[in-house]
Structures are given as structure tokens and as C-alpha cells.
Design brief:
By secondary structure, the protein is α/β, with parallel strands linked by helices. The chain has 2 domains: 151 residues, Alpha/beta knot, CATH 3.40.1280; 61 residues, Orthogonal Bundle (Trp Operon Repressor, Chain A). The protein has 8 helices and 8 strands. The structure holds S-adenosylmethionine (SAM).
Length: 251
């Protein structure tokens, strides 16, 4: 996989990628190029921003240094990769998008700073705009790192156990089941200590569905439900109706 990243604070990205499984993935499994638009500024002070036409607060990132950086990354990686801009008004980044990006040939992440980016760069050079949530960060570096982490940990060989991501939240349109570890004294569901793998799988399946039903029922709308899921959800629905009724009577 080939990944490019464009940032005026490359040291922020480098520092975060120096550690952990995702850092190792970047060093060993990915062809990674990180370039600053400052290298493509036309003046000695390496200016990458200017005042907005029409006035108003803040500065705007100029198109030429960004274009130079994207071209440089493209050339170094020797591939015409989609350019992904991190921006609060982009499409919401989620696990499904992470999976699709993990299966792709690669991409170039462009991070912004200041009040905005010259719209002509976005119109001409950006293929996808992604947001990591409805809030505004001071720069796109943290957003790019969020995307990189979520994508890279899905690559084969990055996590120790190939099954680690299989049952995680959002992977199959539902949340993860609860986990327990030593000590085993009190509070651990007996099924998990039974050694019966079929029962353990069934317990985990039910708990994952229950968590999703209680915390994020919206996820179930997108999930293909089989006979067992429908029966479990029906039971959960009856259970929560009973709980609501009991709550009303008490209070
Ligand atoms: N004026 C812009 C607006 O209101 O949409 C906000 C610019 S923000 C201060 C600077 C940069 O941070 C953006 O260009 C973008 O790269 C990044 N950024 C901020 N919030 C983000 C988010 N929620 N998702 C992805 N990137 C974000």
C-alpha cells in the first residue's frame, strides 16, 4: 500500500507514527511519503497562507504550495492515488470507509490549517473530503492520524492476531461484546469460564447484539439480520418494554 501525507507540521505526524503497531505498519508494510507545502512556497519565508479575498478573519492556505506538495508525493510514490482532504465539512469517516481504504492501493491525505483552503485547490485536486466528526480542530494532522490508525490496523499482519478486528465494534454493523480477564472471582459470566466454545460464541453474539440494541440501535438498520438475530432482538425488545413498564409503575 502507498500512502502520502501533506502537512505544514510534518513533525506532528512523524511523532505519532514513531510508536505502536500503526507506526510499525508505516515503517514495514506501507510506502509512506510525508511532504510539507512549505517546501513549495515561492518566497524565502516559506509562506503558505495569505489573507482572504473579501476580507474577514483568519488566513487561507494558498493553492500552489499544496499542489506542489501533492505532485511531489505522487511522484515519489509513482502512483496516481486519490487525494483525500481532511475537513469538518466532509463526509463522515467511519469503519466502513476505513475498511474500503484498507483494501485500496493507497491515498494521499491532505491536512489543512488556518481558516480555510483556497477553494480552487479543493475543486481541482481533491477527490474525497472526509470529516472525523462534527467539531472543529485547529489542524488536520490529528484527523489524518485518526484515519491512518483506523485504516492501518486493518492491514493483514499489523495486529498480532488476524482475528483481532473481526468482532470489533462496527465491523459487522454492531458493537463489540463485553470482555473479562483475570481474576475470575465473582462477576465473570459463568459461560466464559465453561470452556464450551459454542456456548461462548452464542453468549458473545447475544451480548454484542444487546449492546448495539441498547446503545446504538441505529446500527441495526444497516445490518442483515438472520433468523437467530431476529429472535434475539425480539427477546431484547420484549425485555426493554417490560423494563420501561416497570419503571413507569415505580415512578
Ligand atoms: N474554517 C473551517 C470551517 O469552519 O470548516 C475550519 C478550519 S480548521 C480551523 C483547520 C483545519 O483543521 C481544516 O482545514 C481541516 O484540515 C482540519 N479539521 C478541523 N476539524 C476537522 C474535522 N472535524 N475533521 C477533519 N479535519 C478537520
Amino acid at each position: 500500500m502507498k500512502i502520502g501525507c501533506v502537512s505544514i507540521f510534518p513533525q506532528l505526524i512523524e511523532a505519532a507514527l514513531g510508536e505502536g503497531v500503526v507506526g510499525r505498519a508505516v515503517r514495514e508494510l506501507v510506502e509512506f511519503e510525508l511532504v510539507s507545502p512549505r517546501e513549495f512556497a515561492s518566497d524565502e519565508r516559506r509562506t503558505v497562507d495569505d489573507r482572504p479575498f473579501g476580507g474577514g478573519p483568519g488566513m487561507v492556505m494558498m493553492r500552489e504550495p499544496l499542489e506542489g506538495a501533492v505532485d511531489c508525493v505522487t511522484e515519489r510514490l509513482q502512483a496516481a492515488l486519490p487525494v483525500v482532504l481532511l475537513t469538518p465539512d466532509g463526509e463522515r469517516f467511519d469503519q466502513r470507509r476505513a475498511e474500503a481504504m484498507a483494501q485500496s492501493e493507497g491515498f494521499i491525505l491532505v491536512t489543512g490549517r488556518y481558516e480555510g483552503i483556497d477553494q480552487r485547490f479543493i475543486d481541482d485536486r481533491v477527490d474525497v473530503e472526509l470529516s472525523i466528526g462534527d467539531f472543529v480542530l485547529s489542524g488536520g494532522e490529528l484527523a489524518a492520524l485518526v484515519v491512518l490508525d483506523a485504516v492501518l490496523r486493518l492491514l493483514p499482519g499489523v495486529l498480532g492476531n488476524a482475528d483481532s478486528t473481526k468482532d470489533e465494534s462496527f465491523m459487522d454493523g454492531r458493537l463489540d461484546y463485553p470482555h473479562y480477564t483475570r481474576p475470575s472471582d465473582g462477576g465473570v459470566p459463568p459461560t466464559l469460564l465453561s470452556g464450551n466454545h459454542a456456548s461462548i460464541d452464542a453468549w458473545r453474539h447475544r451480548k454484542a447484539l444487546e449492546r448495539t440494541f441498547r446503545k446504538r440501535p441505529d446500527l441495526l438498520l444497516d445490518r442483515a439480520l438472520d433468523e437467530t438475530d431476529r429472535r434475539l432482538l425480539n427477546e431484547l425488545f420484549q425485555e426493554s418494554s417490560r423494563e420501561r413498564e416497570e419503571g413507569r409503575q415505580k415512578g
